[in-house]
Amino acid sequence: MSSPDITLYTAQTPNGIKISIALEELGLPYKVEKIDISKNTQKEPWFLEINPNGRIPALTDTFTDGQKIHLFESGGILLYLAEQYDKDYKISFPRGTREWYEMNNWLFFQNAGVGPMQGQANHFVRYASEHVPYGINRYVNETRRLYGVLDKRLRESTSGFLVGDHISLADISHWGWVTCAGWSGVDIDEFPHLKAWEERLLQREGVERGRHVPSPHTIKEMIKDKEAAEKSMRETKEWVLKGMRDDAKK
């Protein structure tokens, strides 16, 4: 593989910072294009050429054939970075090993479980146009159940990581979501092993640098500041609901 020619298209979201954390842990050079999702930049024609689904994160690189490759979906991007650039297995494991398959278990657990369920919890707790107790209970409780699975896994881990003896895509894919548990109506104190894991990963230089891309990562501070949280919720709710209405017209 030639030298990286990576551009990351991202915003300050749990999915967005997965990729910047991985890039920082790998020590790869990359350019950043900040996408303003409040203005639907991700729905503009130029961006849809990169990700037809109109979501962040997305990434471009020069592939082995010398042509540009467009990548989207955070799990797919993480696997690309691991397979193309992680020759020393800093954030992954050799393909075909037990750890490789176990890492993928937890990567897809996040992509198919924690992310979608907690994302819906965010919506019903913070942004829904009306108070829907069924939606809140359904998604907050399912997020709590999934957190319980993670907590048990970490309780049984001898290394403090989800898989193997070092940080991997399994950990990186979850961290940004777990760190904003309170925004989703989940009390992280219910899950002591998961909370300790979150705090431990925060001490890593790669996580610390990557979480602040493309803008400061302040969710935990904002959760503690009721006035700031209410302001953010009102502003975000406005463009979230507008985006839903616009999508419904297409």
TrEMBL record:
Give an example GO molecular function: transferase activity
Superkingdom: Eukaryota
Q: Keyword Transferase, does the record have it?
A: yes
Keyword Transferase tagged: yes
In this protein, which residues make up the domain named GST C-terminal? 96-226
Protein name, entry field: Glutathione S-transferase
Q: Which UniProt keywords apply?
A: Transferase
- One Pfam family name is GST_N
Q: Which family does it belong to?
A: Belongs to the GST superfamily.
Q: Which PROSITE patterns match?
A: GST_CTER (PS50405), GST_NTER (PS50404)
Domain (GST N-terminal) spans 3-89
